[in-house]
Amino acid sequence: MERYWNEEIETMSREDMKKLQDERLVKQVHHVYDNVKYYRDLMDKKGVKPDDIKGVEDLHKLPFLSKADLRDAYPYGLLAVPLSECVRIHSTSGTTGKRVVAFYTQNDVDMWDNCVARAITAAGGTKDDVCQIAYGFGLFTGGAGLNGGSHKVGCLTLPMSSGNTERQIQFMQDLHSTILCCTPSYAAYIGETLHEMGLTPDDIDLKAGIFGAEPWTEEMRLSIEKSLGIKAFDIYGLTETSGPGVAFECCEQTGMHINEDNFIAEIIDPETGENLPDGEVGELVFTSITKEAFPLLRYRTRDLCVLSHGKCKCGRTLVKMTKPKGRSDDMMIIRGVNVFPSQIETVLIAQGYAPNYLIEVDRVNNNDTLDISVEMNPEQFSDKVKDMQKQERALADAMKLMIGINPKVHLVSPKSITRSEGKAVRVIDRRKLHD
Length: 435
Ligand code: DLL
Known about the structure:
By secondary structure, the chain is α/β, with parallel strands linked by helices. The chain is 32% helix and 23% strand. The protein has helices spanning 7-10, 14-35, 37-46, 67-72, 106-122, 141-153, 165-174, 184-196, 218-228, 341-350, 385-403, 430-434; strands at 86-91, 101-105, 130-133, 156-158, 179-182, 208-212, 231-237, 244-249, 256-258, 263-268, 282-288, 299-305, 307-308, 320-321, 332-334, 337-339, 357-364, 367-375, 408-412, 427-429. It has a 9-stranded mixed sheet with strand order 4-3-5-6-7-8-9-14-13. A 4-stranded mixed sheet has the order 19-18-17-20. A 3-stranded antiparallel sheet has the order 10-11-12. Strand 3, helix 6 and strand 4 form a beta-alpha-beta unit. It is globular and about 75 Å long. The chain binds 5'-O-[hydroxy(phenylacetyl)phosphoryl]adenosine. The site of 5'-O-[hydroxy(phenylacetyl)phosphoryl]adenosine has 23 residues, from helix 6, strand 7 and strand 12.
């Protein structure tokens, strides 16, 4: 039997959901216009007044906000309440330029915790579970977000943070953790370490994992499920809108349900900004309709995905988004061809390799080069050079079929690629460094 954290909202009729969104949007636009000069100026420039927005159908009249706006307005320019009303700050994990900081009132934190509680409940979590949180704690929203949701559900919460992998496994065994929350790349690393310690999934009590914060493929899901003996659930979110829990997977695992009572989702053509219908790939745009401190309207996430309405078999009516392929700016254009790291991951795992790889792109004599280092399992290793070359060629051929261009594949020895305890860095694009 499917369980919900908030059945009324999660299974609400589309008609009632639209009414709720309309009311909240109208109120939110006034709140932002009255309190955020930066956005008021953008609206004035576009000739839109708060009274022009009567419901979701008018959303397209509002201006977009982008990461550049957030940087421009850093740190307080988009704050919509007095600082004295704020209780928390988080920040994005970006490494270039100014970081983005987001503010929360106590109501914002409660809303966020409830969104994550829905995700934990959809993954089968109850107050009888022991929830091990191995996302980083700190300015990153992963640790705090899952911690808050786990408390709401009433799970026994282990705020481990990331790292110290053997100790994670020790606690997992001793305290009988049943749910693991971390990035998918860290889950893969934990699975690998478990086996290296001579243990199997039978030696731990985990039943589910809630993994997100970075793109991961279906192949990666299967590989983690096998190594840890669990069902792996996806969770999505971003600091700008709160953190994890903007969308979550249910047991059907046919996309992530968006918490639409708090976030209105649109898909737009990233070039023209026009709205796209269900089923078409485009950039995801969010409008926060309940946030008080940092309420972004029409925020362009740069994440590419597809939306689908229609009732899910789990009973939820909340719109679903597909796994984002990656950010539009993660997409590499190599020799004129669009390539996503996730395509490379799919091929690797399908060919029996572990998801430990590094993609390096460069430009030599005006030609793009693509080098993919792939770690072998000990059983794939051969001391015959000819055998290794054959394996490399076979992998390069399979890649070419998937991405349309020929990469140079380098099989490297087991353990030579650095493991990730948070968001994995899989691509080094040296072309950008040269510019
Ligand atoms: O990564 C929030 C989060 C923490 C989500 C823990 C899930 C679990 P940021 O650091 O601001 O916030 O990064 C947000 O990460 O725009 C996506 O590009 C990517 N991302 C997040 N979740 C997923 C996912 C957190 N499930 C950015 N699949 C987003 C693919 C994801 N990409």
